[in-house]
Specification:
The structure holds two protein chains of two kinds.
Chain A: H1 2-10, H2 17-36, H3 40-69
Helix pairs in contact in A: 2-3
Chain B: H1 2-5, H2 22-33, H3 37-40, H4 45-64, H5 77-87, H6 91-98, H7 109-136
Classes of the chains: A mainly alpha, B mainly alpha.
């Protein structure tokens, strides 16, 4: 909450689409890893797996949109 | 062949669930109010802290990007779904409403990202509530 308050006091946060997607993927992967697996090692592996899929999907979507735009 | 055909879901071994306890009700409720608290109250310290940091960060970043916090509504389907996602944030949602955080409307790409962050945080918090419930019932270590 302090983070939000500090940012609201200055100006609203401006990030690129890539940074926003990267950060989202990171936090979502942490939650997926912890909640969908039981053992700590499996949690880390599944979190990394989800993050890799998020990133892979991001790059694929980016290239598809670039091709459609041309 | 006949043996494989008779193999059904009820033949699979299932982890025995503990009887419904006060913890099984309290942990998800606490987890809804404060993300990660459902795990912390069951002494899953590291998991609880990681979940708390992740969901709090997502919500805070969403608010900082002036994401929209949806009000209860019966209008557009996407607005209704947005509210359903947001309400998953529990205590954070009510705090955000009380403090009038976030933007009133999605006016830029950044506020669009912020809105998705806030909805995403709520949906992830619902997953953590279910996980806290499973731990309380003994279905997960």
């Amino acid at each position: 909450m302090m983070l939000a308050t500090m940012m609201m006091q200055t100006s609203h946060l401006q990030v690129s689409h890539f940074t926003a997607a990267l950060t989202y993927a990171f936090f979502a992967s942490v939650v997926f890893g912890i909640t969908f697996r039981s053992a700590p090692r499996a949690m880390v592996r599944y979190g990394a797996y989800c993050f890799a899929w998020f990133m892979g999907g991001l790059f694929v979507a980016a290239w598809v949109m670039w091709l459609l735009h041309r | 062949m006949a043996n494989t055909a008779t193999t059904t879901d009820d033949a699979k071994p299932k982890a025995p669930a503990a009887p419904l306890s006060a913890m099984a009700i309290m942990a998800p409720a606490l987890g809804w109010l404060v993300p990660g608290a459902g795990h912390l109250v069951q002494k899953r310290w590291i998991r609880g802290l990681l979940l708390m940091v992740s969901i709090l960060s997502m919500f805070s970043i969403g608010v900082a990007m002036e994401g929209k916090i949806y009000l209860p509504n019966t209008g557009d389907l996407l607005d209704i779904l947005g509210f359903v996602g947001d309400i998953g944030n529990g205590g954070l949602y009510f705090l955000g409403r009380a403090m009038e955080w976030g933007g009133q409307a999605i006016t830029s790409a950044t506020s669009g990202y912020g809105t998705i962050y806030i909805v995403g945080a709520g949906l992830l918090n619902i997953i953590t509530m279910v996980d806290a419930y499973h731990i309380a019932r003994g279905r997960k270590a």
